[in-house]
Each structure stands twice: as C-alpha cells, then as structure tokens.
Amino acid sequence: xxxxxxxxEITAKAAQLGLITEGEDLPRHLRSRVVAxxxxxxxxxxxxxxxxxxxxxxxxxxxxxxxxxxxxxxxVAQQPMEISLNPDGISAxxxxxxxxxxxxxxxxxxxxxR
Length: 114
Fold this sequence. Notes:
The chain is an alpha+beta fold. Helices cover about 25% and strands about 10% of the residues. It contains two helices and five strands; from the N terminus they run ααβββββ. A three-stranded antiparallel sheet has the order 1-2-3, with no helix packed on it. Strands 4-5 form a two-stranded antiparallel ribbon. Helix 1 (about 5-15) crosses helix 2 (about 30-50). About 0% of the residues are buried.
C-alpha cells in the first residue's frame, strides 16, 4: 500500500492525536505512529466505499465518455465498444482501458479442513 499523505496532514493528525501542540514540529520517532494512524483511516475509507451502479454513461462523438456527468478519467482504447441496451433493466457498456502496467493478484488457496 502506498503512503499518500502530506507533511501537513501528518502534522495535523499528530496534533489531533495529542502528540504535539499546534505549530510544533513532530519528533521523528513519532512520525511512523502518526502515518500508521493516517493509513488506518485511509484503509477504512476505502473499505467503506462500496461499488456502485452508474446512473448514466454517455459516449460522445470524438470519444469523450461521461459517467454520471463526470468525464471518465482513464484512457480508453479506440476499439469497438460492446453496448447492450436493456430498456427493462440494467444496460451495459464494455470498453478497453489502456494502462502502462497491469497487475493480477491471486488469492491464496484455501486449505481444506482435515
């Protein structure tokens, strides 16, 4: 997991935790404790984000894609898209995302009880 917090966030969290007072410098030996607390918060926030169904996908001429009115932030390959329209339920759009790297993580095999 990459650490994604700024020095300002670390200092603010340290003050919130009562390790320092506002405006004080954080001692080096306490920094890892504060970063761990911030990472725990980030992990909790990510775990609470449930996948959600898009309300609307709009594919515009020129390749711009809007998802719920927001521009789709990733590059999409200029290959045919598969679009399944279902007027009675959920429709689907299948497209190809471009990435510099792809990582596939396999789960550990479960041991069967003996």
